[in-house]
Specification:
The chain is of the alpha+beta class and 163 residues long. It has one domain: 7,8-Dihydro-6-hydroxymethylpterin-pyrophosphokinase HPPK (Alpha-Beta Plaits, 2-Layer Sandwich), CATH 3.30.70. The chain has 4 helices and 8 strands. The strands form 2 sheets. Strands 1, 2, 3, 4, 5 and 8 form a 6-stranded antiparallel beta sheet that branches. Strands 6-7 form a two-stranded antiparallel ribbon. The longest helix is centred in the first third of the chain and has 14 residues. The two termini are 25 Å apart.
Amino acid sequence: MILIGLGANLPSLRHGPVRATLEGALLALADAGVRVIARSRWYESAPVPPSDQPWFVNGVARVETARDPADLLDLLLAIERGLGRERRTAAEPRVMDLDLLAYGEVISDGAEGPVLPHPRLHERAFVLLPLREIAPDWRHPALGRSVGELIEALGGDQEIRPL
């Protein structure tokens, strides 16, 4: 199962409002031959770590593709750039953030391709809650824990609500 996280908290010049930009990212994936099998509803979440920037809109998509993890990550970064993402500093406001969360059972330290599964997905309510919607039986390949167990371990310090 290939999982992609989507998030943004700034409008884009190309699509306007954040949700429209996120929908545009899903269309760009499809245009590049990446088949979206399932997607969560959108969630609104406070920035992590906490800051005074606007809240994010986040979701998760399950996709199918013949691309390998490195090629898929390159595509995600290209889509981000095409939608106006500029990477300057960590945890900054952004027009688009596309994360390769998991690629089947692949576990990688990033020496050859992306770090998989995403190194912080198990700490993020804005990933785990939408993920549970589309893949309730998913298990973290490195930790061996179910998405439900990961959600239970979060604690209550992250603000998130469905839109």
